[in-house]
């Protein structure tokens, strides 16, 4: 199994300088470079202390400058919030400056507050996302871009620079709902699987995606499909569960279940207490040995790339020292 890290920039304690959050994340990324991780995936969010990283492309340049081999993933570029040409330029420039190490993950977004602040009607989000992705890929592979769409039109625009990786960086689409999975599969895109669905739902969605790929005439063989999982590791099961419980409470209070936000997956939690649902059905937590067993179970179900989101500094250290050497390929 390959392992990358989904890097959030949570600002839990506002008495702590926000700059220290970035410093700690960049120190972690530098360590990842020599530890054997495949990639860091940088999470883009807006207008919330849940994760204060409004530009994964700027942060990606900082990550690239501190590393030699680690791939730099966007997890994700929230495509509807960009002019497509600007997005194509920024990701291509990151690919150039990193020496061809970009993994481009793109997503539609789901937060009503973000769409409202950016002045984008929510009902346009899917169409804008699809059109933006189409334009970015054409901008990278055309000498000059001519395009006529619903939201954007261009005539003979030379978009520079072009990415180092030919024909472009590897591409993934964030897909958690059935319509998003169906669209990605119909186009032959690989997908990123989100950290908030249950393990059973994760496996079911992966199987649904594979079936839709084949039905659309695409192959599922040898695809890298990162599954994002929130992970808490400690020296005892109890300590790890408490780390996971605190993180679940923070997410539910600060982001997912905030009345000012909306998330499709924050539905009914199967009629259960949301925190307990996260602890029992979503997060991986326990001792290093226990987490290895949990990861192995997902691997046996056909999942081959873990995008780990460690929920504490100790979780990251134990993931790096105790788990990564046992399961990374």
What does this structure look like?
Helix 3 packs across helix 5, helix 8 packs across helix 9 and helix 10 packs across helix 11. The chain has a single domain, classed as Alpha-Beta Barrel (TIM Barrel). The strands form 2 sheets. Strands 1, 2, 3, 4, 5, 8, 9, 10, 11 and 12 form a 10-stranded parallel beta sheet that branches. The chain has a two-stranded antiparallel sheet with strand order 6-7. The protein is globular, with a radius of gyration of 19 Å. The protein contains 11 helices and 12 strands. With 329 residues, it is an alpha/beta fold. The N and C termini lie close together (5 Å).
Topology of this structure?
Blueprint lengths: L1 E6 L10 H18 L3 E4 L13 H10 L5 E4 L2 E2 L5 H14 L4 E6 L4 H7 L6 H17 L3 E4 L4 E5 L13 E4 L3 H10 L2 E3 L6 H17 L10 E8 L3 H20 L17 H9 L1 E3 L1 H13 L4 E6 L2 H15 L2
Parallel strand pairs: 1-2, 1-12, 2-3, 3-5, 4-5, 5-8, 8-9, 10-11, 10-12
Antiparallel strand pairs: 6-7
